[in-house]
Amino acid sequence: GMLSGCGENKLKITDEEALEVLSDLVPRSYEINEMFFGQGLPREDETVYEKTKYVPVDIAKSPYLTVAAMKNAAEEVYSGNYLDSIYVIMFIGTESSESDGLLDNDTSPRYKEISGELCIDAAYKPHDILGRLTVQSVKVAKRTADYVAVDAICVDEDGNELDKTFYLTVENGVWLLDG
Questions:
Q1: Strand order through the sheet with 161-171
Q2: What is the pLDDT of residues 91-106, one digit of tens each?
Q3: Which residues contact 82 (CB under 8 A, 6 or more apart)?
Q4: Who contacts 12 (Cβ-Cβ below 8 Å, separation ≥6)?
Q5: Buried-exposed string 36-64: b where 16+ CB fall within 10 A, e elsewhere
Q6: For residue 12, which of 166, 135, 142 has the smallest C-alpha distance?
Q7: How far is CA 29 from CA 8, 41, 82, in A?
Q8: Nearest 10 degrees: CA dihedral of 61, 66, 71, 77?
Q9: Residue of 91, 78, 107 whose CA lies nearest to 40
Q10: Which of 30-34, 36-40, 89-93, 102-106 has the lowest mean pLDDT?
Q11: How would DSSP label each residue in the chain?
């Protein structure tokens, strides 16, 4: 409010702490992004279908066999605020009644538990996601009460350097990626 001085509510993190946090979270975020947006969890039936078709994930190969397990893994890396919108796409789906009426925006969730079995929509078009990154150095660029922006120099799997800004927030005393 008006009476509070400047800055005391801003999240605090040093460059060293940010490097430690990102070195842990960024590699783990790759797996989560791959599961949600990339190739998805491995499935028994590798056929790509035109229309929504749920096929079981491959129990022998998949690291997760329930929606709850997927969420637990994601929530160790990403903030709840960020994941809320992802969960709609991944686990709930949207109906066109929620859209502006111009487009048919029915989307089925990518993952569904059917009779207790985790299934994946074999018609979902995977996105190319950023590959595995190693965080080399960081500088805290901006701090607010809600998040910290950290400018990082990363190296990809081919050894190329790239600049990337990561957003961190704290939930229950734990630093998490905020998108």
A1: 134-143, 148-155, 161-171, 174-177
A2: 998 765 555 555 555 6
A3: 177, 178, 179
A4: 143
A5: bbbebbebeeeeeeeebbbbbbeeeebeb
A6: 142
A7: 30, 15, 13
A8: -20
A9: 91
A10: 102-106
A11: -TTS-TTTTS----HHHHHHHHHHHHHHHHHHHHHHTSS-S-BS--PPPSS--EEEB-TTT-S--SHHHHHHHHHTTB-HHHHHHHHIIIII-B-GGGS-SSS---B--SEEEETTEEEEETT--PPP-----EEEEEEEEEE-SS-EEEEEEEE-TTS-EEEEEEEEEEETTEEEE--
Structure tokens belonging to residue 131 = 């590959």
Tokens of 21: 């946090």
Q: Could you tell me the pTM of the whole model?
A: 0.86
CA distance 52 to 108: 7
C-alpha of 177 from chain center: 8
Q: In which residue are the tokens 């939930």 written?
A: 171
CA distances from 74 to 33, 70, 78, 93, 107 (A): 9, 6, 6, 18, 21
- Tokens read off for 165: 């800004």
What is the per-residue pLDDT for 134? 95
Cα–Cα distance, 113 to 45 (Å, whole number): 16
